[in-house]
């Protein structure tokens, strides 16, 4: 809290009702509590997922519903991070299933100066927005108006956005349509995955929220804000089970974005040897765009006979098509496996690194050959490369894209690096 605010004669302790649920909300709660000499978190509202009938018993009570953690566990409830925080810090907690008129009247009786909303999960009725003395303010973890909705960080990553914004906004009756008080840029074009990016944004957003609250205190609620345009707005829909499935009809770039956007949870997955395989961290590059890459010199994909014992070769399959594709790697002919082979992708290892060959329908052709190896076949290594095993070679027209898998998790197993997967899991399954 700034010295100016501390020394202001007209300064008063501001009363806040906090609404939040997930871990994303915790940095803001910590920051507000650290400033409790000037900020009073008088009540916390958190959505607790669980069985509907149990939720009704808990959620419909407006008065004394502060259950102990043990009582919550006995009710088979999932404990939210925010709930645990409230219990640990002796803050009154409410867990309604929805914001009813009774809930609104109760909040009105508290006479809050602000309602602060961070990753709450419940819709706020329009008549709640006028309850606080000043505003209902929300920390929105992505660009506005570009991404409005439930999963703005994930959708921004999936769309390939290089930059996003972190916004503190005044809530109105629309979905993330209110005036923006403060925004800061955040670079998405990095090696971090969603979980790490979300943590960064939550930490930055907590400091932004405190700064906004300080300004509201200092200027008695008179603050500058920018009205949003609706131009260029996209709806960031909630992540579904279908979103988790890797579809090898998509481009390698989009698959890489999906891996980045869903890691570590829920995780983008495909099938490997009839088990679910989550791909959790990847590196993407394109032969089309990086014509200075010489794969032969880098010894990434042009494999000589001495390296044959050090590689594995297999296929990943799109889980949604697992019943439609049957890959027989022992088939001794030159026929392409199936017309819909694009629903799978070759995976191989070399030098303790794992690679997936990705390409769209127009860019990939795969054939088995009987010969043990072939060499000096291709004149342009930027468009073609070969893989060979002891039994046969695989000719790949990869006028396209490669994904290197950095971290992955087989069904029922731990998160492994590529090296751990090759030297641990694969060797143990031989």
- The structure class reads alpha+beta
CATH class of the largest domain: Alpha Beta
Helix content: 25-40%
Please work out how many helical segments DSSP would assign: 12
Domain Formyl transferase C-terminal: 238-291
EC number: 2.1.2.9
GO molecular function, one term: methionyl-tRNA formyltransferase activity
Keywords: Protein biosynthesis, Transferase
Summarize the entry for a quick read.
With 430 residues, the protein is α+β, with helices and mostly antiparallel strands. The protein is built from 12 helices and 19 strands.
List keywords for this structure.
12 helices; 19 strands; 430 residues; single chain; Rossmann fold; Methionyl-tRNA Fmet Formyltransferase, Chain A, domain 2; six-stranded antiparallel barrel; alpha+beta; 2 domains; seven-stranded mixed beta sheet; elongated
Polypeptide structure, described:
This protein is α+β, with helices and mostly antiparallel strands and 430 residues long. The protein has two domains: 3-144 and 157-226, Formyl transferase, N-terminal domain (Rossmann fold, 3-Layer(aba) Sandwich), CATH 3.40.50; 242-428, Formyl transferase, C-terminal domain (Methionyl-tRNA Fmet Formyltransferase, Chain A, domain 2, Roll). Helix content is 25%, strand content 26%. The chain has twelve helices and 19 strands. It has helices at residues 3-7, 26-34, 52-59, 69-74, 81-88, 101-110, 152-158, 194-218, 241-244, 252-262, 295-298, 418-428, and strands at residues 14-20, 39-45, 93-94, 114-118, 135-140, 147-149, 163-170, 180-187, 234-236, 268-272, 275-286, 313-317, 344-350, 353-358, 366-369, 384-388, 393-397, 401-410, 416-417. The strands form four sheets. The chain has a seven-stranded mixed β-sheet. The chain has a six-stranded antiparallel barrel with strand order 10-11-18-14-13-12. It has a three-stranded antiparallel β-sheet with strand order 15-17-16, with no helix packed on it. Strand 13 (344-350) and strand 14 (353-358) form a beta hairpin. The radius of gyration is 27 Å and the shape is elongated.
């Amino acid at each position: 809290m700034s010295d100016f605010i501390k020394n202001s004669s007209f300064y008063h302790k501001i009363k806040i009702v906090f609404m939040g649920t997930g871990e994303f909300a915790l940095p803001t709660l910590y920051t507000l509590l650290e400033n409790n000499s000037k900020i009073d978190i008088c009540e916390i509202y958190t959505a607790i997922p669980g069985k509907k009938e149990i939720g009704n018993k808990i959620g419909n009570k407006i008065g004394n519903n502060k259950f102990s953690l043990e009582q919550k566990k006995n009710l088979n409830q999932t404990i939210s991070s925010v709930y645990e925080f409230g219990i640990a810090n002796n803050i009154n907690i409410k867990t309604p299933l929805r914001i009813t008129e009774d809930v609104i009247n109760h909040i009105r009786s508290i006479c809050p100066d602000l309602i602060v909303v961070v990753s709450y999960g419940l819709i706020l009725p329009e008549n709640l927005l006028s309850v606080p003395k000043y505003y209902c303010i929300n920390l929105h973890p992505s660009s506005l108006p570009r991404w409005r909705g439930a999963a703005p960080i994930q959708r921004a990553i999936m769309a390939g956005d290089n930059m996003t914004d972190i916004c503190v906004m005044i809530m109105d009756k629309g979905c993330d349509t209110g005036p923006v008080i403060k925004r800061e840029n955040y670079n998405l074009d990095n090696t971090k995955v969603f979980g790490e990016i979300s943590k960064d944004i939550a930490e930055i957003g907590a400091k932004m929220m405190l700064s906004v609250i300080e300004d509201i205190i200092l200027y008695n609620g008179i603050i500058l804000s920018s009205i949003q345009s609706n131009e260029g707005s996209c709806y960031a829909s909630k992540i579904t089970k279908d979103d988790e499935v890797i579809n090898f009809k998509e481009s390698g770039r989009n698959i890489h974005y999906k891996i980045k956007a869903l890691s570590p949870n829920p995780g983008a997955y495909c099938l490997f040897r009839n088990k679910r395989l989550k791909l959790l961290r990847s590196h993407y590059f394109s032969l089309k765009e990086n014509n200075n890459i010489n794969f032969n010199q880098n010894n990434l994909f042009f494999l000589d006979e001495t390296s044959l014992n050090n590689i594995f070769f297999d296929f990943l399959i799109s889980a949604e098509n697992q019943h439609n594709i049957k890959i027989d790697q022992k088939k001794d002919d030159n026929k392409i496996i199936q017309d819909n082979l694009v629903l799978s992708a070759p995976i191989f290892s070399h030098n303790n690194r794992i690679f997936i060959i990705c390409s769209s329908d127009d860019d990939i052709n795969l054939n088995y050959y009987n010969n043990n190896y072939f060499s000096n076949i291709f004149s342009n290594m930027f468009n073609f490369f070969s893989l060979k095993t002891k039994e046969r070679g695989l000719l790949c027209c990869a006028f396209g894209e490669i994904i290197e898998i950095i971290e992955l998790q087989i069904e029922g197993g731990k998160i492994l690096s590529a090296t751990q997967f090759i030297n641990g899991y694969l060797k143990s399954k031989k």
